[in-house]
Amino acid sequence: MTSPFFKRCAALSIVGLFAFGPVLLFVGGAQASYKLTPYQTTRKNAGTPNSTTVKKNADGVIIAYGNSSITYRAPSSALVTLGDALFQQNCASCHGSQANGVPANGTSGAFPDLVGLGPATINFWIDSGRMPAANPRAIEANRRVPRLTHDQALAVSAWVNSLAPGFPLIPYPHLKNANVADGAALFALNCASCHTIEGDGDALAMSTFSPSLRKIPSIEVAEAIRTGPANMPRFTGNLSDAQVNDIVKYVTTEIQHPNNPGGFGLGGLGPVAEGFVGLAFGVGVLALFGFWVGERDD
Amino acid sequence: MSDVINTKRSKKQALGPYGRVGKSLDELDDRLGLARGGRTFMDKIFPDHWSFMLGEIALYSFVILLVTGVFLTLYFIPSSAIVIYHGSYKPLDGQKMTQAFASTVNLSFAVRGGLLMRQMHHWACDIFVGAIVIHMARVFFTGAFRKPRELNWIVGSTLLILAIVNGFLGYSLPDDLVSGTGIRIAYSIILSIPLVGTYVAFWVFGGNFPGTSIIPRFFILHCLIVPLIIIGLVSAHLFLLVRQKHTQFPGRGRTETNVVGSPMFPVFMAKTTGFLFIVGGITALLGAFAQVNPIWQFGPYDAARISYAVQPDWYMGFLDGALRIWPSWSFHSWGHTIPFEVLIPAVVLPGLIFNFVFVWPMIERKFTKDNAIHNLLDRPSNVPVRTAVGVTMLSFLGMLFIASSTDVLAKFFNLSLNTVLVAMRYLTIIVPILAYPITYRICHEIQALHGGGRRKTPNVVARSSEGEYTATPSPRYVDDVPSHLAPTPVPDYIHEEPEESGESGVRVVDR
Amino acid sequence: MTDEHRTPVSLSGLPANDPHLQPAARNPELVERVISVCFVVGTLCLAGFGACYWIDAQPWKLGATLGGGLLFLGIGIVAWGKYLMPRGPFVEERHTLANSEADRQAFAAAIVERGGGVVQRRKILGGLLGGGMGIFTIVAMFPLLRSLGPLPKTTLQHTDWRSGSYVVDQSGRRVEVGDLAVGSIETVFPEGTQNTDRGQAVDQTVLIRVSNEAFTTMKGRETWAPHGYVAYSKVCTHLGCPVGLYEQELQLLVCPCHQSMFNVTNGAVPQFGPAPRPLPQLPLYVDSSGFLRSQSDYHEAVGPGFWERS
Prior knowledge:
The complex is a heterotrimer of chains A (about 300), B (about 500) and C (about 300).
Chain A: H1 4-26, E1 53-56, E2 62-66, E3 70-73, H2 80-90, H3 92-95, H4 119-127, H5 150-163, E4 170-173, H6 180-190, H7 192-195, E5 202-203, E6 209-210, H8 218-227, H9 241-255, H10 271-293
Helix pairs in contact in A: 2-5, 4-5, 4-8, 6-9, 8-9
Chain B: H1 8-14, H2 19-32, H3 35-43, E1 45-46, H4 54-73, E2 82-84, E3 96-98, H5 99-109, H6 114-142, H7 150-172, H8 177-191, H9 197-205, H10 214-244, E4 258-263, H11 264-289, H12 295-298, H13 317-325, E5 331-333, E6 336-338, H14 340-368, H15 384-403, H16 406-413, H17 417-448, E7 459-463, E8 469-473, E9 488-489, E10 493-495, E11 506-509
Antiparallel strand pairs in B: 1-4, 2-3, 5-6, 7-8
Helix pairs in contact in B: 4-6, 4-11, 5-6, 6-7, 6-11, 7-10, 7-14, 8-9, 13-14, 13-15, 15-17, 16-17
Chain C: E1 9-15, H1 28-54, H2 59-84, E2 90-93, H3 101-121, H4 123-145, E3 167-168, E4 185-190, H5 197-203, E5 205-209, E6 229-233, E7 245-247, E8 252-254, E9 261-263, E10 269-272, E11 281-282, E12 284-286, E13 292-294
Antiparallel strand pairs in C: 3-4, 4-5, 5-6, 6-11, 7-8, 8-9, 9-10, 12-13
Helix pairs in contact in C: 1-2
């Protein structure tokens, strides 16, 4: 494997992939070979450059694609130097100065290799405040107040993406074109089994958990669906852009602003909270009234 | 003189001493003969202790259930036919759902007062079962189930089972995602019964799950069959109570052969009618301010969909908890499977618990060899064994109930879900075992205390001029008259002016 | 309820100033005023309920006025009974429920001698009637049971997956081999069943892509998971809930109902929780057009256990 001939072949094929890869994707040519990277699918309108409109920059690199449901845009390349500086300052201590990560070793877990993961992934982790990690040893990073601003997060994604361009790009859903009823049905089938039907999240296996969806901006919802962060599965070809747009609209309207016509929502915990309220405020208060109505012993 | 009967005074005199009302009652007595029975009924004495009001909470929440339930039956359509919803709730617009679900969404959003009635109905059910449980606990701990009231205990225990079952049937009617999952679990529980499970499941559901028969069948059971049985048993329960008269705590003037308290009319009727209104009022306030079972957020049931954190309503929680913590013991040999991991927690365990509850009066009679009639109640601390057994059983059921919310506990306390579940397996055994000796000891401690568990009478401390302090017990209030009064029979009549002779008036009337 | 004898009854009376007949409150006038306020407030609330109903107010307003009205009226009525009515205490004698020995003997004699006499003399009739009633109770159960539904036969042993069934999602779209990325999950059905009750309840299957290469979970299943697509029955083997919760880093399928955890990488064997058996795996293959299809039905019955499950 170290002979010059093989090295030249390898170099040529890498260059060829960068040159022709986007073209192959554009024609949906993955049918010829099943060796796709994690984000590439053959389904049109599914978070990949198979979408209807594709925009490339002067070097032929795809910087935006999308349709009437979601537009995916790469972060501006002008942010790359800022992103480099921010990355070295905030992220390199764990992920390495070239974002190659550190493999797991003994009792210490892995710090993932970020190269080629695509801007949406990087942007999600930073924008939700999960990265820089509060506790790098925790089994799952909690959502926190973000340490970097939106633009800084975009800058970091721009720099990581410049190392090795990946997909998907950052999704910008067009919520006006979404159908909230379809979103409700899709949410119930795909999302409720982890995030609960009310969207409050809960404890899952071992010490993992699904986070609450009550305060997440629409871009992050789309990013999470398309990239599948941590234990969350990723939805690529199994949901079209229109379907993702519907789910985002459902989450940002009904889940985040439920009109609870029946009164206090009781935390969305369902029958557990209802039982507590019924017994404490129903039976308990009535028993107190009974204490007043009746007599005590002398 | 007999000709002059047209004056107002003579007409009044003709009516007799009790006026128009007395005349009407005379007419009723001519036809129904209810003068003596009516008088006896109205003189019935009800003891006043506050713990006797707990059963009334259950009774009146049942009344609320009936009233709100009738309203709901006018709008709910118990059909599994598929319809497309086009109503005011946008996230369901254009979605396919069963007519049962669509009519419930319609009830919640389009029918005036519908959401309030739905919520009152659901809260009244939660309160109903809760009140039955604490009422049963009161009856158990005070020994009111003893002879001659064992039959009433059995009637009441049956009512508890029927209330739980009807609650499950009722919240499953809207055919939403959360309750539909419960129905799927019920189907699998029936399947698990050896030999006949598949047959019974196919007969109850009209085929494989889910089928289209289960919602209409649940509707008939929930609205007609089970409520009729409950009404019959509640009537029997109240009849036995009136016939055998209520029990009472020992106290001043109270013996095994009398009842001290307030007469039915007017005092008890006033208190109980007021309490009915209070129960209705609290239920309505809960229905106004606490949202319950928001089925529109859950969406219609689809056998391929599921939500996380689906617990059943609280009174089914002990079953869900038992199913979660039970290890996966499944017997599989010779071409047959007996799923013990389902059978034991969901069929055998509740069967054992309820059978134990039913036969407890017989068990106690056997161990204490006490066949006497008991109309006076025990103070729980005076019967440590019974109290400890009761606390053990309640703590066991309580642990099972807590085990049904393992995921909520893991979320709130930031623990691993697996750890919480394993902990619940141990705690469900350890806590009841510990509860027995602790309760037993506490009862003995209370017995050992002078006046333990009773209200302390205040003492008036006086200082004599020599400086000596004396403490004498005194009533709570200086003019606290009732505690000094001896009980007296209910008077048949009240006379305004006192008799000159000074004797209490006695009139002998020949009938 | 009382004795049926027609004997003279003595009526007892109390003077009106007897302490038993006085109200329990120390200040009845004040209590009466408080109760009147309760009644007025309650009535106003109920009138408000009527008004809210008239104008179709929000449910919480309806409930608040109704609840407040009932509550205040109830408190007033209870207070009236508790504080203003004769305070008692009154007493009533319990009469022994048991009747006299003579009565009991007569009752027992009526049943035993009369009844015994009848049956003893006509033993054959009694026996035949008993047998008839026995048969009647048995057959009376039949309409209650058998008409309710069909016999299970082998319905629970099979699903609708066949050799060559196209794998489709809930909208009926066929799944192609390039559809899912690694770490994706989708709920799939055999083509044609995705909108039926049976399809959703019985045929539902989770399709997970665990890698880009063919994936072997257990011996004998080498061809079952082409290109990393592995398919398991979505019906939990514990109680039938859909096992839709996939944690892609832990590679666990968790059942949301009672938290059974199935290991995706070794044939969905339950690692934790009450589920007793692994989720059955559906053998897949990729046809020449790139569509995913099933090789056959599941090799065992899906879902929870039952007696006939071998």
